[in-house]
């Protein structure tokens, strides 16, 4: 079990921190064309991604605002608007669909767990694939409960800090 705690800058006096933001260039027009094909004027979208595509999210939001009912970039501080991590994701309003721009499953699973009733979609900017994503919340709860039960009988516990 890994737990990542994000510490706001104002809570770290005396510690020098250098944030380096990476922006990966992708074919934004293909993303927008794909999304316009799949979403209608009634769609409400919550755009999310990892930090390297947050600038792309801003462009997508601007381009889609006249095509769909609403587009938001939800935020969980200290992250940027639209940014998610595997450990940190926002709760989105009811009736909004999740639209994740990125690859892999780790980060999108975080927001699907936090919003189990929201429809989730992923656009992978590397493969240019658009997919509907699912997460088995019931199975996750069953597995977690089983592991908690096993841990309750443990004689030795370890805590990793760092």
Describe the structure.
The structure is a single chain. With 162 residues, the chain is α/β, with parallel strands linked by helices. The chain has a single domain (20-150), classed as 3-Layer(aba) Sandwich (Rossmann fold), CATH 3.40.50. It contains four helices and five strands, in the order H-E-H-E-E-H-E-E-H. It has helices at residues 28-38, 54-64, 106-114, 137-152; strands spanning 44-49, 70-72, 97-101, 120-124, 129-133. A five-stranded mixed β-sheet has the order 2-1-3-4-5, sandwiched between helices. Helix 1 (28-38) packs across helix 2 (54-64). The chain starts with 27 loop residues before the first helix and ends in a 10-residue tail after the last helix. It holds the Pfam family Diphthamide_syn. GO terms for molecular function: 2-(3-amino-3-carboxypropyl)histidine synthase activity. This is 2-(3-amino-3-carboxypropyl)histidine synthase subunit 1.
Which characteristics define this entry?
5-stranded mixed β-sheet; 162 residues; alpha/beta; Rossmann fold
